[in-house]
Amino acid sequence: MATMGPTEERKRRTEALRGCVIASANGAPDGKLWAQRARQLGVTHMRITDLFGDGTVQALNNGGDKLGELDAKVRWARDANIRFWLDLSYVRNLFVKEKVNPYYKTWQEWLPYFREVLQRDFPDSSVSYQDYPTMDCVALAGEPMVLWGDDNPVQQAGSADQYVWSLLQQVEAVRRLGYDGPIAAGGFVHLGADGRGRDAHGDLFDQVARMPEVDVFTVHGYDNPTGDAFRNLARIGTQTGKPFILEEVGFDDRTDDTKAAKLTAFAQVASLSGLNGVGLWNIGQYGNFDVRPDTGPKSAAAWLQVVDAVGARRPARAGLLLRRHPHLSGRRSPATRLPLTRSSRPSPVMLCAWGPDRSGGR
Length: 362
Prior knowledge:
alpha/beta; eight-stranded parallel barrel; 11 helices; globular
């Protein structure tokens, strides 16, 4: 079992996440196309999310070989020198779908679902997903419902304390499986004008950011959050010494011009926001939230303005120095990034996933 609280090595790995650019691979069956788009969008991390959607039985038995689909996608990302951010929110979503309140589940009840992906062998290697050198972060269930939730009690934690208790159960399940890297939590989405929107419920944001078991503090950028909202939340992250990451943002528009205008305006909001990294909801093949440089060049260019506004890095394309990890076997080894100066980072790469019901559009 990995330790619950922070270690020096975990702190080092957490600090390396500052400047990340995340994008989801949800709705992207063509992994090669996804990786090509990610490169053009400055993406550094593929956000793995929404692995299963039918039910808990499917998740425990790899119904439809969804994990096989995952393996195919991550190969393309790995070969494009894109790293990984694993989001476990889908487990919580499946419980809600089956009319079970997830916020009262113990670590023993979360563990079997997390095990299916965390301890699965990473493609072409002899190590698991959780131990793969470029698996940089595991995110717990985000976009929580505490007292609000479409008037559905099953979606609601009921109190800030209960939500924090649930996060501790999820952390314990992940650590008992042996994952020893950074854990992200929050994913708060209804931020309001000052960052203290309807998800806050008093000092919930502060409580989550202060948890020693949580390494990265995250929010999602929907409902038109303001610069003040981000700055207020960034102060919380700064006070706790943790990276403050906008894990996902997106706009539900069909035309390239409209989406580009909104992303350009958002870049102004993001500037001087205190954000330490950004995430794009999706660059898949379906949905109006997706940004696709091949079919929407203006919105892709506007997204890069967002990346630059928060000082996020743009990863090097090829020619990274490679170092074979001692526990890897098979045809390929992942790139181990050496420290890069901003001027030495030519081009973009990264992925991200899940949020409000964006299955039909985002």
